[in-house]
Amino acid sequence: MIEGNQMPGRLYALQLSDYDIILGMDWLEIYGAMLDCIKKRIRFCHPNGAVFEYQGSPKKHWKSWKEIAQPKECGGLGVLNLYHMQIAFRTKMLWRALTTKSVCARFFKRKHLYNYHHSKAQFPLMLAADRRLWKQAAHLIQGNHRMISMDTNSAGYFWFDVWTGDTPLKAYIPEDIWRDMPDKLCTIQQALNTSESTQLQITLMHCPRHLLAQYLTNNDSKDTWVWCSTSNGIFSTKSVRLLLQPETAQNLKEMSAKHIINKTMLSIRAICISAKFQNIPQPWLNALKQSRKGDADLNQNVMAPRIVRWLTPPQGRLKLNVDGAFNVTTNEAGGGGILRDRKGNMYCAFANHYKHLKSILVAEAFALRDGLLMCYNKGINDVRVETDSLNLLHIVTGKLLHPWDFAFILQEIAVIAKKVQAAITYKDLCPSVGLYTVFLFLCEEKVNGVLVKVLKT
């Protein structure tokens, strides 16, 4: 029965569950059916002379939960992914078990880790499906943790925990050496207890020397664990969910390449207008989408750069200007500096490329450190250093809290600054704020539980 018209047919029972009825070509021919696939419509010509149409309903497309739970920027609905939430909560439980000394934490480690390192744990008492989630949680912690040891008596694992550098020391050991190494689960205390220990000798042979010469200690009664995926080093389940998001979702949060290109073009055009260049090649003008007669329209949209005067240092002293740069799309960074005398004559300069940095602030700090180190290596003392980063100056003077991964570079800056007797100043490049100078001296204090040397005003 369609649209009140009886349209009988011979039906056969089939073992199908996805369809209610299948109508063949013989039946469609009897009733003069004409199909319009685009509009999802069938036009019937009944033998009794009746002509009518049947309009189908729009087809519903099913989406997997994995696609629905993706961020809106990736075509999903932005709802919480339950699978990611399960991993996040297990990561939180495992993190607490590793970073605290409560009764529950000790019970968990004895029962499920069997005194193994969490990255090597098999979780044998867990169900098979749950075991997979716990292993993924352990993998996330292994790749996103740092440990600040209390001293050489630390109970952290010498080879597996990231207590110096950016990776576990095991990553530097060749496979054939690692295969025959005894006591792979030794602690930092056991490895550093004597200078003749096997672990220490192997480390000196295969690992960079600075890893054992430069590492942070908190001089506390227990080790300090740092979660690298947050700026303050404190664990959060939200940061775990962000780590589990598709890589495309995280890339969309960064500055787009198109925006960077447009910003660069505007900067070049602004310089051309400010300097009043008369002999700009026509290909450059075409690339910048401006003509020689288009300066009036361009002046309305582009702010010309402001020339900042370089202030000379006092008589008999040298001045070091440092600056850093960071590309948010490629995570590439660099820094440089120039040392000049009172007349502006260059004494020496440097330019370095930095890898694996996370912000412009860290690039500024590396440039400051390298500039001070250049002065120290050349035997230059009583130097005046100028930076354009006010946040960096406030961090080294203790007026702002520094990120957890800033402590080591801050300690290096303080030590070298004391050796060269440097006076660090700040030069503001913004027209609305004046120029002021801050002189610094060295002291020690605890910042976020870590003993560091800082510069104070």
Automatic annotation (TrEMBL):
Molecular functions (GO terms): nucleic acid binding; RNA-DNA hybrid ribonuclease activity
Protein name: RNase H type-1 domain-containing protein
InterPro entries referenced in this protein's UniProt entry, alphabetically: Peptidase_aspartic_dom_sf, RNase_H-like, RNase_H-like_dom_plant, RNaseH-like_sf, RNaseH_domain, RNaseH_sf
Residue span(s) of domain RNase H type-1: 321-400
Signal peptide: none
Native organism: Colocasia esculenta (Wild taro)
